[in-house]
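Objective 1.3, modelling of assemblies. Example input:
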Amino acid sequence: EAQVTQNPRYLITVTGKKLTVTCSQNMNHEYMSWYRQDPGLGLRQIYYSMNVEVTDKGDVPEGYKVSRKEKRNFPLILESPSPNQTSLYFCASSPGRALYNEQFFGPGTRLTVL
Amino acid sequence: ILNVEQSPQSLHVQEGDSTNFTCSFPSSNFYALHWYRWETAKSPEALFVMTLNGDEKKKGRISATLNTKEGYSYLYIKGSQPEDSATYLCAPWGYGGSQGNLIFGKGTKLSVKP
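Predicted structure (tokens):
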């Protein structure tokens, strides 16, 4: 089944404890992206990648890192999480290197930072 | 940062009503417009990606039109059903600070009463 998977789906952690949220797609998509969703603010793009080894900042990149060492995986790294990073996170992928095609979203990761 | 306006913010209709809502965006530097449907507790799902001025797309009872010269898109739902209850998001592409940046509006939340 063609899909985008994220792990973990739920995570409660403490301030300063490094964590990684994994994202993997099995559709051979070039484009991958991370979003966070906060009440009243909508979906905001954190980072995106248009190809392997190519990443770029979205609108809210502060406090996050990403890497794209292989096509299928695009992990989101929080080196020192803070409470303002408590949010619902979505990974998405899209065929092609541009956004002329629809994105496919993962199931989401709900993160709470205490 | 680009301002994407969606109106109304929320809408309550009766089953069988037809409805429409608007996505407004700057008319310069436009490449494509994405529409997504987002049901509570699920992930956003793509409805349409539109690129050309005057484009019209249809999927079942849902259709969309695009006016890139004046910077707006309409989404129409004919004969709303309770299963249409969701938040509808638009995201114009082409304005972000970098090539792969996608900026979402805050959405129109539709509730359809049986």
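The radius of gyration of chain A is 13 Å.
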